[in-house]
Specification:
35% of the residues lie in helices and 16% in strands. By secondary structure, it is of the alpha/beta class.
Amino acid sequence: MNKDIKAYDSVLDLIGDTPLIKLSTTTANYTGEFFAKVEAFNPGHSSKDRIALHIIEEAERKGILKPGDTIIETTSGNTGFSIAMVSRIKGYDCILAVSSKSSADKIDMLKSMGAKVYVCPAHVSADDPRSYYEVAKRLHEEIKDSIYINQYFNELNIEAHYRSTGPEIWEQTGGQITHLVACSGTGGTISGTARFLKEQNPNIEILGVDAYGSVLKKYHETKEFDSEEIYPYRIEG
């Protein structure tokens, strides 16, 4: 007698629905319950799988991205790997402009996923033609039938987490979440997740965490960046 084989059609089906794991040992001296949303369970090992799949599938849905097209992006590692993975599975060419501060093994991983990688100098202004921003934009202009993901200024970055991460956390906690602590690199994860959770309960507190010396804290408080050379673009909101 034949039995049904329980298998996924693609690793893309494994993106999202990551587990919530209770933290006991590290929080033993604190009052309350603490949980970690373990995004490493995504097939690309980070939350960036969510935005890569969402942005690419939205482009497909709108007819912007068609078979045989090329996907271009700037990245320091994780997003690039996710985009390269999705591109490989869906059959698109992938070109990544990467900062030279990215480690050699990260760059090798991107290449192993079939991406063509341009390594660009890290210590130049964002509007310098050698920067990975400008290299990606130039390649997009030069390559016919290409799209530029532009994760740093793409609102679909936020929407991906609004539609997936936020609802997952709300459901997994039974609506009992009181605080969300999240990294705030490009801002997509914390913004999208927080927006959804705040709509469910405006009393939920959102705590952003970023590296020491980050420009985000000052910008949040003053609407000014520390360095216009590094961040020459104005961000609204």
